[in-house]
Amino acid sequence: MIFNSIPFVLFFSLFFALYWWVFPKNRKAQNILLLLGSYFFYAWTDWKLLGFIIAVSALNFYLGLKIQQATVDHTKRWLSYIGLTQGIGGLLFCKYYNFFSNSFNELFQALGLQILWPTLSIIAPLGISFFTFRTISYILDVRNGKTKAVDDGVVFFSYVAFFPSLLSGPIDKARTLVPQLEKNRHFEYASAVDGLRQILWGLFKKVVIANNCALITQDVFTHYQELPASSLLIAMLLYPFQIYADFSGYSDMAIGMARLLGFEITKNFDFPYFSQNIAEFWRKWHMSLTSWFTEYVFTPLSIYFRDWDNKGLFLAVLINFTVVGIWHGANWTYILFGFLNGLYFVPLIIKGTMNKKKKWHKNGSLTGLEFFNILKTFGLVTVTFVIFKSESVTQAFDFYRCLIDKSLFKVPVLHGISMLFLLGLLSYIAFFMGMEWQAKNKNHALDFLENKMNVWARKTLYLFLAFVIFYFSSMVTNQDFIYIQF
Amino acid sequence: MKELLAQVNEIFIDVLDNEDIVLSETTSANDVDEWDSLSHIQLIVAIERHFKIRFTSKEIQSWNNIGEMLTSIQDKLNQN
């Protein structure tokens, strides 16, 4: 059940009505409803694996309580190892077992060994990478005394399965979401309206930008060998907008929906394409994941390697980003994507500018150098997204090879796409980026409107957005969100 | 503690390259713009070298504010 589908709209409308009108001011009933709603939402897509998420929640709920009760340090440690083994082991088995089997088999074959490691037919539970990261952070935080164990089963199970962010994040840590589940929630009109705005913007990004970009990128990445390099260049430049609009669109809808239910969940994107270096980009891209990795992978590693100064920092960054890459899925493309992004940090570490935070000028202007840096960062990211998008590393390099060709100066060929459509899409992207630029110090792109636009201009804009969303919803068949596969 | 705080304040100014930083025992990473996960490690290395002490990984990750960090430093100095 994806957010921009009729079944979901019906589900959410009914849920919203029950949540606020049937069970208002009754936190326990609202939490039970939230849990049942989340399981219904999950079961709609994948009912066979509902048992898995329930079992995972039960085990981690029990472990959290036991870790807190344990008085001896090594008991706490061993109990946490059970949770980590379940979390990391479950992920490795469900998502990566066949990848490792195939890689071993290729290695054995290359070495001339007659060994065949068996592959299995495994169905990875949807959203496993997202809800597993919630349980892992919970277990580590309870062990390290950063959060208290949750003693209310409904609260904990709802935390793991919270439906707005269950399938594709943001990945909330227990210490941010659990306290909100434990307190009474009141319907706040202003916050709900802002949530609706964020949903509207998320829908625009997904339906108008991402789905239309996909019409071009999907075809070009499939037939890149038969097309002129100019077509490849167009697809390569569109893909960063597609993936950003797709994923941040989903996050906007998740955050907006959570706000409609009285929750403030973690921000996931902070206008990343206006970043002036790669470190800033990663502070603003998929923030809930990068902050997770920073806390549980990068920080312990950099503490461990701290005597090696910059060399230690390189190593910690490279390992961290390689694992970030692997998190996306079992393919060498993701590993290389992560590793390359880690390598991009090297000049920043040498210059010592890795953690220098840029502030925008008060009048919103941009110097030539800043503009150049934004383009440079976008360029660096674009190059790695080709690898991210490709089916294999070989295909990615073949794509680059085809790109460097004199057909770069030929008229691009895009199957089934008219020049008018392309120009229209580029105008929508310009509008999309323009709106985001205006709101770069805000929470989302429609957040700045109240101060800058009168009520009629605002209403016209909302109507325009709603119109194009409906228009393109009927034109383009619903496409799944890219990050749901992870 | 006051003397310690002043020394740590100097280290923060030096590492984070910001003359305006004024720390108190309740200051946390949220209060200082430049204090993030990356600069945290640089601060720790600078503090360890300055005081000639060595923290454990667990200690480093347990601090919630400057006061807790200062207590750890004081404990280490007392042990030496």
UniProtKB/TrEMBL annotation, chain A:
Family annotation (InterPro entries): Ac/AlaTfrase_AlgI/DltB (IPR024194), AlgI (IPR028362), MB_O-acyltransferase (IPR051085), MBOAT_fam (IPR004299)
Subcellular location: Cell membrane
UniProt-recorded Gene Ontology molecular function terms: acyltransferase activity
Major localization listed first in the record, in broad terms: membrane
Annotated membrane topology: Multi-pass membrane protein
Keywords: Acyltransferase, Cell membrane, Membrane, Transferase, Transmembrane, Transmembrane helix
UniProt EC number: 2.3.-.-
Sequence intervals crossing the membrane: 6-22, 50-67, 79-99, 111-133, 312-328, 334-350, 371-388, 413-434, 455-473
Pfam family, one: MBOAT
Family: Belongs to the membrane-bound acyltransferase family.
Name of the molecule in the record: MBOAT family O-acyltransferase
Lineage: Bacteria, Pseudomonadati, Bacteroidota, Flavobacteriia, Flavobacteriales
TrEMBL record, chain B:
Annotated PROSITE patterns: CARRIER
Sequence ranges assigned to domain Carrier in this UniProt record: 1-77
Alphabetical list of InterPro entries matching this protein: ACP-like_sf (IPR036736), PP-bd_ACP (IPR009081)
Domain of life according to the entry: Bacteria
Protein name: Acyl carrier protein
Organism: Flavobacterium sedimenticola
Taxon lineage: Bacteria, Pseudomonadati, Bacteroidota, Flavobacteriia, Flavobacteriales
